[in-house]
Amino acid sequence: MSVFVIVAAGGRGLRAGGSEPKQWARLGTQTMLATSIDACASVPAVAGLVVVVPAADVERARQDAARVSHDKPCRVVAGGPRRQDSVALGAAALPPEAAVVLVHDAARPFVTADVIGRVIAAARTHGAAIAAVPVHDTVKLLDTDPAGAWCAETLPRERIQLAQTPQGFRRDVFDAVVTLGSETADATDEATLAERAGHRVMVVAGDPANVKITTRADLDAAARRVASTDAAGGAAPTPLVPMRVGLGYDSHRFDATRALTLGGVHIPDEPGLAGHSDGDAVAHAVTDAVLGAAGLGDIGGLFPDTDPAWKDADSLGLLRDAFARVRAAGYGLGNLDIVVVCTRPKIGALAPALRASLASALDCSPSAISIKGKTPEGTPSLDAALVVHVVALLTQAASA
Ligand code: MG
Questions:
Q1: Distance of CA 252 from the midpoint of ligand 1 (Å)
Q2: What kind and span of H or E run contains 26?
C-alpha cells in the first residue's frame, strides 16, 4: 500500500510575526517548510509527497522541495482559503496508487520517523490514526461571564491528549474526510472530519518535541534548537535527558628535557612530557571529554598538532577555547572525574592545585572536579608514560 504525505503549508502563518508566512522562516541552513518536507520524505515507507502552499509561493516551494524530497515524487500545488480547502486541493494531486494518506503540518518541522511510522502502521490497520501527546497539567473547562472566567469542571486528564500531526487515513476514509470538509465549517484537523464521518480514529504516541511553531517565541526556540544541533555536526539527536556524557583519554611519554605541566599547573623537579604542545595530558583529556559530550569533535580537529600555531601551546588556553564552544552550543559543566595513571609525580598531593587550575579554566567550582592518581603497579608498558582518563557530564543550559 503506497503511502503519500500531504504537507500542509497553505496558511499565511503570520502569528509568528515577520513579513512573510512562517513556513519560510529559516531553521539553520534551510526553511521550516524544507525541514518538514525532508523529515517526511526521508521515511522509507513514504512513496511520495504533495506540498500545499499559498499560490504566490508555489515556485519557491518547488525549489525547496527539489532539494529535500529524497528523489521521491513531490508535487507542489496552490492551497485554498481554509485548511480543509488546501487539503482537498492536495488530495486532488494525489496519484491513484496512494492507498494511505498522511497530512502533516509544515509548522511541525521536528516530527520524527518513529512518529510517522506509528501513524502509518495504525492508519493501515485501523483506517484512521493520529499522533497525540498526554497532558501533564490539570485541565479546566471554563464558564465565562462579564466578570471573567470560572472553573466549570475539572476534566479527567488521563482521558485527554493533545492532537499532533501527522494524521493518517486509508484512502477511502481520506476521501470521506475531503468530501465532508467541503461541506462543513472550519475544521482544525482532519481527524475531526473523520470522526464526524463516523470513523474511529486510533491515537498513537506522538512526541513532545514535535511542537507546532505558532508564535514568534516558538520560532526563536526552534531556531535555537537547530543552531545547537548544527553546532554539534547536525547529527546530535535530541537527548532523552537534558545531559550528555563524554569520555576523554590521553597519554604522553616522559621527556626529561622538558618541564612538566599538568592541568595548567607547572610542577618543578619532575620529568616533563613529550608533545607538540606543552604536553599537558590532563588538559588534553579534559578537552576531549567536554568536546565529546557536546558532540563537537575532538582536540585534534580543533587544534591540529601539524599546525605550527600550537607548537608548545598552553594547553589550558586550548581547553578554555574549547569550553567556550561547548558553552556556545548550549551546555554547562556538571562534573568531571579524572584518573591519572603514572609512577610520578604523586597526584594526590597535587590534586588541590590541579582542581583549582581546571576550575578557573572552566569557570566552575573545584568541587565539580575530582582527580585521582593511580600507579601502574608494575605494568612495565605504563612506566614510560603518563596516562589520563576523564569522564565529563554536561547539562543543557536553560536557554538552549
Ligand atoms: Mg595530548
A1: 6
A2: strand 26-27
CB atoms within 10 A of CB 19: 6
Neighbours of 197 (CB within 10 A): 16
16 — pLDDT class (breaks 50, 70, 90) = low
State in Å: Cα 180 to ligand 1 middle.
Answer: 68
Predicted TM-score (pTM) of this structure: 0.59
- Å from CA of 300 to ligand 1 middle: 9
Contacts of 132 (CB under 8 A, 6+ apart): 161, 162, 163, 164, 203, 204, 205, 206
Dump the DSSP string for 232-288: TTT-PPPPSSSEEEEEEEEEEEEETTS-EEETTEEETTS-EE-SSSS--HHHHHHHH
* Residue 296 CB partners (closer than 8 Å, separation 6+): 231, 232, 233, 302, 322, 325, 326, 329
CA 80, chain centre distance (Å): 33
Whether residue 400 is predicted with pLDDT greater than 50 in this model: the reply is no
- Of 148-152, 285-289, 308-312, the one with minimum mean pLDDT is 308-312
- DSSP 8-state assignment for residue 199: -
Query: Looking at the chain, how many residues does it have?
Result: 400
Strands 139-145 and 30-31: unpaired
Which amino acid would we find at residue 249? Y
State yes or no: pLDDT of 123 exceeds 80.
Answer: yes
Q: How far is the CA of 366 from the centre of ligand 1 (A)?
A: 23
What's the gap in Å between 280 CA and the centre of ligand 1? 7
Q: Is residue 80 pLDDT above 80, yes or no?
A: yes
Whether the Cβ atoms of residue 295 and residue 312 lie closer than 8 Å to each other: no
* CA–CA–CA angle 69, 71, 72 (5° rounding): 70
Check: CB of residue 337 under 8 Å from CB of residue 246: no
> Please, are residues 209 and 229 in contact by the beta-carbon 8 Å criterion?
no
Q: Is 189 strand, coil or helix?
A: coil
Q: How far apart are CA 240 and CA 289, in angstroms?
A: 20
